[in-house]
Model the fold of this input.
Amino acid sequence: MVFAKEKISYHQEKSIPLRIIDFGLKTFPQAMILMEQVHTEVCSTPNHNGYLLIGEHPPTVTMGLRPLWEDMKSSVEKLEFLKIDFQKTDRGGSVTVHEPGQMVAYPIIPLSSYRLNVKDYVALLEESVIETCKQFQVNATRDFINPGVWLGLKKIAAIGIRVKEKVSKHGVAFNLTNNLATFDHITPCGLKTRGVISLQGQLEAQGQKIDSPLLLKKQAQQFFCDFLHTKLLKLKFD
Done:
């Protein structure tokens, strides 16, 4: 597996179906500039295998294509006062939150190259989160009505994507070690009777002491990338 720090270069090798770029902590607009750059590259390059962008954002609230203002508990002005960024995006879904300790994963891949339709692609993203949780003895599940990954009535990972020119954009927001404070300002996914949880929060609820949240975050991120990488290899080359 190949990791890079923001360097955009094309690799087409049978053992590497996609290039993985860890962009660290970037504002949402900065990450979107990078996403659009690699999306344009993948769209314009025949037989490109794609990219997986991973990283984190400072406290941010994003709204999808549908202007679901009723899912906002705080005004944009209040968010600005609290130094929480607000951004409209071109992904699907309602409002969601990003904050440090949450892993965002943005696969930029030509779906047809991996024999994926949109439904199967969303299921693959959900499976990657579920299997990551399983590595820490946490049993996460799908909700076939509400996309994402859940621990009971609490969401641990949100999924919002867009497919443009048959290439995916946006992706997964996976709560790992974030304190979830920014979620107080929204109704996540418009579901008033449900909440959110992080991997660290669930492990602590199960009685596990987390000595190093940073190590937990890195281990979960690595497994997620490894699992998704392996699944894509099988889809492309089996």
About this structure: Confidence is low (pLDDT under 50) at residues 1-15. The first strand starts at residue 3 and ends at 4. The radius of gyration is 17 Å.
